[in-house]
Every structure is written in C-alpha cells, then in structure tokens.
Amino acid sequence: MTGPQRDVFFVSNSVDELGGVTSWSHQMARLFTGRGHRVHVVGITEPAVPQELGELPYPTTTLYDVHPPRVGPARGLRGRLDVAERRLRAERAAGMREKAAELTALFRAARPGAVVIVTQVWAMEWVELADTTGLTVIGMSHESFEYSRKTSRFRRVRKHYKDVDRMLALTREDADLWIRQGMDNASYMPNPLPFVPEVPSPRIENAVVSVGRLTDQKGIDMLLDAWSEVAPLHPDWRLRIYGSGEDEEILRKQCTALGLDDSVDWMGRTSDVPGALRGGSVFVLSSRGEGFPLALMEAMATGLPCAAFDCAPGVHEIVRDGEDGLLATLGNTGELARRLDTLMSDKALRDAMGDAARANVRRFTTDEVVRRWEDLFAFLER
Amino acid sequence: MDQPRAHAEQETEPAASPAGTEGAGEAGRPAVSVVVIVYNDAARLPTAVRSVLDQTLRDVEVVVVDDRSTDGSYEVARRLAAAHPGRVRACRLPENSGGCGAPRNRGITEARGTYVVFLDSDDVLERNACRNFLEAAETTGADLVSGLCVRVHVDARARKEVKWYPWLYERTRTLESVSELPDLLVFDTLSTNKCYRRQFLLDEDLRFPVGIHYEDLLFSAQAYATARSITLIPNRVYDWRVADKAEAKSISNRRDEIANFTHRMEIHRRVDRLLADRGLLDLKFAKDVKFLKHDLVLHLRELPFRDAAYREEFAAIARRYLESIDRAAFDETEPIHAICAYLLQVADWDNLLPAVDTLTNRDKISSPLVERDGRVYWCAEHLDDPFGRHVLDVTGLGHHIKAVDRMFLRNALTSYESSGTTVRLAGRVTNPLGVIPPGARLAGELEFYARRPGVRFQTFRFPVATLWHAGEAIAWEGSADLAAVRPLGIVDAVWDVRLHLDVDGVRTTTRLTAAEPGLAEGRLPVRPRLSRLVADRIEPVVSSRGHLSFRLVPDKKANVLVLRGVHGRAATLAKSGYRRARSLRKDLTSGDTKIRLYHEVFSRLPVRKGLVVFESHLGRQYSDSPRAIYEEMRRQGLEFEPVWAYADGPAGFPDDATLVRRWSLPYLRALAQAEFWVDNQSYPLKLTKRPETTYIQTWHGSALKRMGFDEAEWKLKSREEQAEQQRTLDRFDRFLIRSEHDVHTLARAFRLQERTLLRVGYPRNDALVRARWSEEGDGRRERGPLAAELGIPEDRQILLYAPTFRSRGNGQKRFELPFDVERFADTFGDRYVLLVRSHYLNHVVLPPSVRGRVLDVTSYHDMTPLLALADGLITDYSSVMFDYALLDRPMFFFAYDYDAYVHEDRGTYFDLLERAPGPVVRTEDELHTVLGSLEEQSVKYAPRREQFLADFGEYDRGTAARSVVDQFFGQWRRG
Fold this sequence. Notes:
The complex is a heterodimer.
Chain A: E1 7-12, H1 20-34, E2 38-43, E3 60-62, H2 76-81, H3 83-108, E4 115-118, H4 121-127, E5 136-140, H5 145-149, H6 153-160, E6 166-169, H7 172-179, E7 186-188, E8 207-211, H8 220-230, E9 238-242, H9 248-257, E10 264-268, H10 273-278, E11 282-285, H11 294-301, E12 306-309, H12 313-318, E13 325-328, H13 333-345, H14 347-360, H15 366-380
Parallel strand pairs in A: 1-2, 1-4, 2-3, 4-5, 5-6, 6-7, 8-9, 8-11, 9-10, 11-12, 12-13
Chain B: H1 3-12, E1 32-38, H2 45-53, E2 60-66, H3 73-83, E3 88-92, H4 101-110, E4 115-120, E5 124-125, H5 129-140, E6 144-153, E7 160-163, E8 173-175, H6 182-187, E9 194-197, H7 198-203, H8 215-226, E10 230-242, H9 244-249, H10 254-277, H11 281-300, H12 308-322, H13 335-345, H14 349-360, E11 364-365, E12 370-372, E13 375-377, H15 386-392, E14 408-419, E15 422-430, E16 442-450, E17 460-463, E18 466-470, E19 473-481, E20 494-503, E21 506-513, E22 524-525, E23 535-542, E24 548-554, H16 556-567, H17 569-588, H18 591-600, E25 611-615, H19 624-635, E26 641-646, E27 658-661, H20 665-673, E28 676-679, E29 694-697, H21 712-715, H22 719-729, E30 734-736, H23 740-749, E31 757-758, H24 766-778, H25 784-790, E32 797-802, H26 821-828, E33 832-836, E34 854-856, H27 863-869, E35 872-875, H28 880-884, E36 891-894, H29 898-904, H30 912-915, E37 920-921, H31 924-930, H32 934-940, H33 942-952, H34 960-969
Parallel strand pairs in B: 1-2, 1-4, 2-3, 6-10, 11-14, 14-21, 25-26, 25-28, 26-27, 28-29, 29-30, 30-31, 32-33, 32-35, 33-34, 35-36, 36-37
Antiparallel strand pairs in B: 4-9, 5-10, 6-7, 6-9, 8-10, 12-13, 14-15, 15-19, 16-17, 16-20, 18-19, 20-21, 20-24, 22-23, 23-24
C-alpha cells in the first residue's frame, strides 16, 4: 500500500437496508479495510427491510433505534400554525442535534486525513449538523441525474451537498449535469464490479435473462412488449425473468394477454445470480431508469452480450454499443426487440460480444476503483 | 518589490513536472498560481485576492501585478502579501502600461505554480475553480483547461447573471485540437476563464501583445492554436463582474471609438495570420462567419446614431478587412448579415442604412424589395454583379407571400418640428413589392403609449393628416398636440410612438425610425397627473433600436424628493399591494382556476339537451369529421344547439353555430353542459367528462407510425402517469374506425374497450367515396369551385404534395421542400399544377417564379376538398394516404428519409415499402421519372391500390356521417 492509511466513515440511511447502496457500501468498506484503512459504517436509523450482511470486519453504528419523526416542510400559514406539527418538528430538530453530536464524537476520534463518505443525501442532514472540521466530506448520488430529477432528492442534493468537499455522481455525464445545476463541486466515481466469475457462461442455452425486482422502474412491462415482437421469430428461445416484487401479478396478466406464456419463465427471486446468468446466452435490461447497474456489469463479467435500454449515462458507460452489447432508445420497445433479434439470430455475434463484454468490463474491477478512491482522498487534501 | 529575485529563481528553476503526476510537486511549488492584475482598483483588489485564498484547493498562490496604480493599489497588494506570507506575492511594473497585456506577461514570469490562471482585480474566482481546473488538467494532461465564465451585473436590481457562451461548456470534453470545435476559438476569446500549464506558456513563448487593445483575442487564439490538448469543463469558474452604470457612462468620443475599431481590426488580422501560418483554414472560415454575424453587427448597429464623417471612417477600415473574408462565409449567415456586409463593401449607404434597421429589428422590412425573374431581391441595385445578386436574393424570407398586416414596415422619420405643445412629424413607410397598391384607401393614426406595459393605463392617439404614394414609399405628415398626453409621472417616464397604417381597412403598425442623429430634438411642456413637480417637460429620445420615443425630463430637486418617496415605506407598501393585486388577477385567470371552475361550478349546472360541442384539431380548424357530422346534421335539419370551438380566431367557422374560444369561460361552460362532445383529437386533458355527456371521438387518420402506448414516450411513463393518461382516453364513449387495421393499432394503442369502437368509417371521407362513385358513374371527374378559386387552368392535371409533419427542433416552423420546386415547375409546369400542403404546424415559402404552377394550400382548413381535387397524390408517411386511396387515383411516395424516419423515430405498424399502393422513391430524380405519366402509374398500381383500400378502408362506404347522425342524433329530427 502506497498512500496513507485513513479513517473512513460511510454514513448511510441504514447500515443494512435492503438495496444496492448497502451492498455497495459494504463492498467498499471491506475493500478499504483490506487496504489497511480504518472503516466505520454509520446508519441513521433501522431499515424497513434488512439485508443479511454476514460477519463484518469493521464496526457499525446506528444512530436511532426508532425512526426519527417524519415531518414535511411547513407550507403556508396553516402549516406554520399547526401546533402538533410544530412540536414534532422541534422534537425532530432537537433529536437531530443530539445524534449529530454523536457523529461529532466519532469524527473527533479520527486521525488526521479522515474521510466521511455520505452515500445518501438524507444522511447528509445529520452529517451537516456534525462538526467535520479537518475531515474531508464526500456526498454521493447513487442514481442517474435524470432519475434523481424526478424525485425530491433533486432539490435535497442541491441543498445539502452544496458545500461538501466533493459531490460524486456515477459518471462524468451525470456529474456534468449536476454541475450545470450549480453543483460546482461535483465529480464522479464508477461503481466497482461486484464479482468476476471464474467460469463464464457457455452460452449454449437459448435463453434471454432478465434480473431485477418486478417494479415499475425495471420496466418488465416494456420487456414483455418487446418480447412479444421477437418471440414469434424465435420459437426455440425462452425469456427467463428473475426477481419478485409488487407488480408481479399485473405483469403475469400482461404476459398472458400478449400470449407469451409459452415462452416466458417466471423464475422468482434468486440467491444465485451468477448461476442464473450462467444459464443464459443473452442478458436484457429494460429499466426506465438506473444509476450504474450492477446486474448489467455482472452479466457482462459472466460473458453475456446485453441488449439494454439506454436509460442512464451509467448504461452507455458500461456497454460499448455495438462492441460488447447493443443499446436501444429508452422506451422504444420495437428497437429493443430488434436488438434482441440481432443477438438471438447470430451465435457468432453473441460469442464475440460476450467475450468482449467480459474483457471490457474489467476496467471496473475493484482494484481499479479502489485506486481511484485513494487518489481522490489524496487529491482533496491538496 | 523583489523583481530581481523572482527572475533569478525563474532561471534556475527545473522544468515543471509533467502533467498527470500527482501531489504538490517540489516543496514550495504550488499547484496553481493565480495572477491578479490591478490598476487603480484598491477597493476591489482584496475581494479578488480573497476569492483565491478561499479556494477549496489550498495549494494555490496569488501573484498580484500592479500596473503602476496611483490610488494605492500596490500598497494594498503589499499588505495582503504581508498578511499571507507564502501565499500572496505583490509586484508592480516600472511604469504604467495602459493595458492588461504587460501585467499579465509579468505575472507569467513571476508565477511558480504548475498551472497559471489570470484574474482581474474587479472579478472573482468561483470557490472550486482551481480544484476543478487541476483535476481536469491532471486527468487529461491538457495544456489548457477552460471553464464557464458568468457575467454578473452587480448593479442590476436583482443581481443578473448571464453565462458566457454556455453552449461551449455543456459537458466536459477534451479536444486534441481546437479545430474540433472552431466555435471555441471564435467565440470564447477570454483569457481569464482558463488554466494554462505554465511550462506550456514558456515552451510556446506565449505572451500577451502590449500596446494594443483586445489583447485577449490574440493571446487566446495563440493558446488554442498551439495547445496539444484542451479540456473544457462545464463548471462555473470565473465571475466577470459588470458594473452597468459605469458602462453606460463610458461613452467615449469618436476618436477613441475609431481607434478601438482600428485596434480590433489589427488584432483580427494578426489572428488570421496566425491561423493561416498554422494551416487552420476551417477556423479562419468559422471566424469569418462570426465576424459577419457578430463583430460587424455590433458596429453596424451604431451607425444610425453616428454622423457622416464617422460612418465614412468606419467604413474605410471595415471595408479593408472585409476584403479578407471568404465569400462562402456569406452563405453561412442570416441573409441580412450578408446584405449589410455586402452593401458596406460596395459603399451603398442609401441601401445600407435601412438594412441596418432590419439588422437591429429582425422582423422589419426596411427595403422596398424588387422582383426579378421570379426571385425577390433586397434592392434593385447591384444585380448585375453575380455575387451581389446572390447575396441580395431574399426570396427565402417569404416577404412576397405576406399580407400587409403581417409585415413590420420601416417608417423613416423625415422631419421633426416642435412648437409650443405641438410636435409635427413626417415620414416615409416602406412599401415592399407594392403591397400597398396605388389605389388603396389609406388612413393613419399616431399613438403614444407608456413603454412599461404594467403602467400602460391610457394611450393617446392623433389622426395623421395626409398620406400619399411617393414613389416607392408611402409618405405621411401629421401632428400631435402633446398637451393631450398626460403621463402619470415617475413610473411611466418613457413613452413610445407608433403609427398605425390602415390599407383598405387592414391595419399594419410601424415604429418611427430616427435614421439620422440630431433629427429629433427640442423639449416640450407636459403636465403629468402627479403634478408638474415630478417633471414639466418631455423630450424626444431615440431608443437603442433606433425608434423615436419621449422621456419625461425630471426636475432635479423634485426628483430627489420623489426618489426618496419611491423607495420609502409607504411607496413600498403601495407597490407590493399593486403587485399582489396583479398576481391575484393572474391567479384568477390561470388555467388551474379555470379547471376548478369547470369542475366545481359549471359541471353542477344541468346538462342541456341538444347541446353539441364540436372541435377539430384543438380548435385550429373547421374541418374533418366533426365538420362532416355537423354539416350532415344541418342538412337533415335537426333541431340542436351547436357550439364550435376555435383556437386562434373565429374566421372560417360557421355563422350558424355559437363560436367559443378554446379555454374561454363560455367554452368550459358549454363543455360542462353539453349532451355531446364531437372531436377529432382531444379536449383539454384535465377536464373530466360528465357521465351524462357522450363523447364521440372521430379521430383524424389511420396510423402508419406507432401511436399512444405503442410510443416510447408513453411507455416510459410511470404507472400512475399511465393511469392518468388512460383516464383522458377513457373519456371516449365512441371511437370511429375505418378498418380492422385501426382496431389493431389505434384502438389497442389507446387501450380502448371493444364496445366503444364504432365501425362506420370517417364522415370526412364520405365526400371522397361519393366522388369516386360519381366519377365511375359518368366517367367524368368534377373539379368543383375550388379549382377556379385557385385559378387552375382546365388543361392541367393537379398533383397534391402532402408530406407529414416534421419537427426540426429549436422552434423552427419553416418546412424546406425536399426537392427543387423551381426545377419541378420548369419540368412539369405545362402539364401539372402542384398543390403543396404542409402540416398545419409547418409552413413553406414558394418563390414567385413558380407562381401559377406551384401553389401553397396549407392555409385551407379542410383537407378533403383538396384530396378530391387532386389527380394524383405525393406524400411520404402521412395518413392522407389512407384517405386518398378511396379515390383510386395514382399515389407516389417520396420517402427520401425513409430509414431515419422509420427506424430512428418511433417506428411503424407495417412496412410501407411492401404495401405502398404506388411507387416509393428516395430521390428527386426518381420522383421526376415516376411523375412522367399519371395514367401509366394508375394502371400499373391498380391491383395494389385495391388491396390497400381493402386493408385500410373497408368501413369507409360513403355513409359514415349519416350512420353517426342516425345513431346518435336521430331523435332531434323535426316532427
């Protein structure tokens, strides 16, 4: 290890909330620990749905054991006069100051050169109340700019990350969009590849694989529309949809209505994503929005060529269109169908693109990403 | 000051570490040196230096270079240096240099950082600027990093900020050479929003020129041209603080201006030389274009305010430089830019000064224009010079097809006299192409009105005494007794004047242009309503656009009192009260309020039996199936209460119906109380239909392109948004269907229930089916009155060109025909008349040369009579193909952009190439070939047309309107 060993704090909504950000933080926390840094993962509150994390080689802290009071901003005269709301708001503010003081105590104990990585903007509301003098504070947005724009996070990122030492988006393109919103402290950092399987997919089964929760965001409805155009051309191919979620019933109905029951397999949630990917020959991503999709990287690492909606800068950052995968305009199901058709019709193309994908995606290996983080820590000290 | 030491250090220093290496480098060598230059700006210097010391990048030094100030700036700099040892250094030039070049050059010498940034003492750096510069430079290894500069108008009431050429800084990008982005060199000529690798400056010996203004232009051009790589970052890096008030006052004398212009041209020449030496011809070309479009324009706009001597001197300098401009650059500008440059070059002042008026007032027609050989030219002169003829050709502007009330005509003031309270004015109004005919009834009216719309409570009008045709122009004389003009005072200090000219009852409005300096002078008494204390005289002034206006001359003493009053507490309260009242009024008339009114008030009124609200294409037209149904109802003499909605104006809508403006209260009320809605597109989406109302959605065409939920845009919506969309579609109680193709496409794309589908065909197409019957019956094709109206001779066949809508983005509505219309007319003019109907959102301009042979029929509301008239149809992907097929006449598909349209756009429901009932051609030549004989095509494609009709028009049987009326309105038959 060349650089200095640092104290690194990850501050998230929860230590173990089910989701991509949690997986990402603990992956990074383990990697940093492995590099000799002293890591501490802090969650603001207990999660609604927890995720199994296993044995952790670093300490964790959760500030609240009950969720802090939920209050909206006071709107108009009526909002300001609502006594119950006011009391709740005061209570929340007092509680936040108290919890921020706990954070301050943690930060004070850190060695010089320590870094606070705030992974979600909600957590920043506590970090900004804490004393971070002498520490480098990094705020992250783990989704594409466009996707963020549709949520309340858009406003909150611009408010709470305005003065952090560096705000990190997932890609250069996203960072540029944030910069144009006046976030002149914005830069970017890609996600690391979660794993590189020893053995790639043999690409022998005539199966297209989709992995993702069955929710609106993942666009399985659009995938089915696209599939209804390709399936008749390839009666010997199957679409395997892995995942479960709130929309399952509606989606299955849609599948039946489109007459696709004979070619679509509803695989349910799987704990063996590598295995699921190895069983396919093509991967499809039909999301309405993404950040820096891990599933896509995993599929590529498994040697699958991908057909994907170009739904985020992260997607065309990972996939080199025409070289290691094929992209379609977001929402254009006819185009996605044509991309799938191209891959399904041509074994040689699948093999070439699959091999290219497995090779190309290595630029996001953990070594590479950890090096970039350590460089960033050093840069922000200058 | 430690000048010798700094120099010594410079010589012994090792070469700067190469780009890309990290860390602070050798001890004492900062990452970035910011060179702050100052001249007599002691007050603001500390702010500039503070903006560097507060940088998020700590590894930064400040080098203050004083250009021998006399106000103590250097002492301030030294104090700053003393307060921040090791971070701030101060030095000064031995004598004042009078420019920015020498101090910056000195700064380059003094700087020790790996990178150098320039900052002026009155500006500031953004907090993260140096960190962002450094990150970009180290990741890309660029010699030069450039970021966004923002002009901050510090004196403006609400600190106004204007980004400096933001389109160059939309994203991070690295250029291997500036020729990848010529606009960078051409537009962003600042040296201050940039970070230079110091070794790059030294290696290339880059220095600012000294003793000449506009030193930035040359320096940045050199830096761009020599940099091995340039990185642009979208970050705001530099605040250029602009003091508006000072700027307005610094009107220098004529000598200075001419000197400045001479300097500017000299710098341009040096830059051109540099580009030529480096073989950067593309850049020179881009720069030429910019010179014509921007640099020259700035100076030309000043000309009306300058005297003849200045004009001559300016023209002489400019003309010399114009010689070096590539003539091809004239084609890359707007016509008026090229015209002005050309007229300047040939020293035609009589035509140039009016042209400058158009340069300043873009829509104005300031020249009488002339038509020669079927083209329209700016002026009659210079047409024997081929280049002049080329530049002066303004056919494309379409002035020759505009009506006089759509024209903004130049009205040049020729005399101004005032005596007592009366002002006597005379002027000449341009009469382009004789649009105001000699025999026209003319009347005129001068109008005085307050410039600020918010305080325009009253306008004052005076009839114009005389108007007459005077050669190519309309001359006028009139007077106004300004005693009648009663401004309020203070809030309405500026008054504009316009002249309304009535030509045979059609009104066109002009502004009075004071074309010569000193033309309008002399104060007149005035009585403001707020008493003469605030002002007792009014004086003529010429606005920046060259138009005559008047300004109240405030009494100085009273003015102080008044200003105090205006900014006092009482006035503030009054003003905020006024604003609140205005915003309340705005709220009350807003869309949201109207929607609430519709739902909460109008929808509670009883439904009126027999009330039918018709609408076609969002009220833009009286046309299509709603019209056909309406006319059938009239024909049958039904008793009902018809309401037609219009969008722009009621012209063209039927007299025997109640006409309501879309979104007006009567419209909303009619919709709320209607028994039937009959429409072909959509009523306002937010209006809920009452269950008692029946909505007959006729729709307006079968689909080739994917529609509704088959479009990407719709699919992308979230589940809630889709549900919201579906609610508006579920308002349809009946949806008209022309064929089973519609069922598979439109009905599915709109997710309509089977029971809403009405398989009766389109009422609008009944006329087409009947036309075919009649033709088949007696073997004759009836042309009807439209042919005569359009003046089409009996012996010509009629072709209709009806392409689909194309959006070209950036708000442009002009549709460029994809073929040479003059060539078409020359080839086929003796046989065919071509009717051109662009989509109602587009418009076309036809040159006069094709008059009588090619006609623009876009303004005809109703498509059906045009289809019935045409002996052949040329289209691309428009849904008119489905309707025209009913006539069984030849069809041509000019699909010049087929692949792009079909694949890159939203896609189609079927392959046009396979099923088109006529030849599909990709090029103009192919089009000409197939158009050779209509009869031949007609025979050749007869079976395909039959198949096409069977596939896409099976329910269009000529009885659609009657079926709809029978089914829904039969109960209203009399007796």
